[in-house]
Amino acid sequence: MSEPSDRSGGGAAEGAEQLTPEQEQMLRQMEEEMRKVRVQDLVAQSVVSIINLAYRRIAKEDERDLEQARIGIEAVRGLVDLLEEDARHEIRNALSQLQVLYARQAGGGAPGQPPEGGPEAPAQPRDPGAAGGAKPPPRLWTPGSD
User: Fold this and answer.
1) Residue 122 burial by CB count (10 A; 0-12/13-18/19+): exposed, middle or buried?
2) Which of 124, 136, 111, 110 is CA-nearest to residue 55?
3) Which residues of 69-108 are buried (b: 16+ CB within 10 A; e: fewer)?
4) Whether 107 contacts 121, CB under 8 Å
5) Within 20-84, where are the H helices?
6) 90 closest CA partner among 43, 137, 37, 41
7) What's the pLDDT tens digit per position in 56-96?
């Protein structure tokens, strides 16, 4: 009679701590990958994700949320200087394009016009020529890609 209580008591806790050989191998692989990851790489990946999400919050009508887009733009502006030079250049280009799209959507008018009663627009691109017109930022950019 004591056997069932042993299985539901200490046995469950012990079973949760034991890993299968496959799980142990996967854990070792994950640990090895973590040793290789640099914080700058993680920041770059996060910035790319933020840019992509902010773009969706502007461009996709059914997902539009200009306040969320503004927060994303401000987050990228705060992180861009922490990136390596090559990534920094690409991110600034994408950020400039994103800011132009935001300004157009928030203001409902031509580029350069301030938004009318909407959320405060992020600063305009540092280099107006960098925006390259009305082209939207790439759907997915990854560090090291051209």
Assistant:
1) buried
2) 136
3) bbbbbeebeebbeebeeebbebbbbbbbbbbbbbbbbbbe
4) yes
5) 21-36, 39-59, 66-79
6) 137
7) 999 999 999 999 999 999 999 999 999 999 899 999 999 99
The rounded distance, in Å, linking the Cα atoms of 7 and 106 is: 61
3-state DSSP call for residue 139? Answer: coil
Residues 99-135: pLDDT tens digits?
999 999 998 654 444 444 444 444 443 333 334 444 4
From residue 124, how far is each of 45, 88, 121 by CA, in Å? 24, 17, 8
Distance of CA 137 to the CA centre of its chain: 14
The token duo for 100 is 């132009």
Burial of 115 (0-12, 13-18, 19+ CB in 10 A): middle
φ and ψ at residue 107, rounded to 5 degrees: -90, -20
| Exposed e or buried b per residue across 132-145, where buried means at least 16 C-beta atoms within 10 angstroms of its C-beta | eeeeebbeebebee
Q: Give the global pTM.
A: 0.59
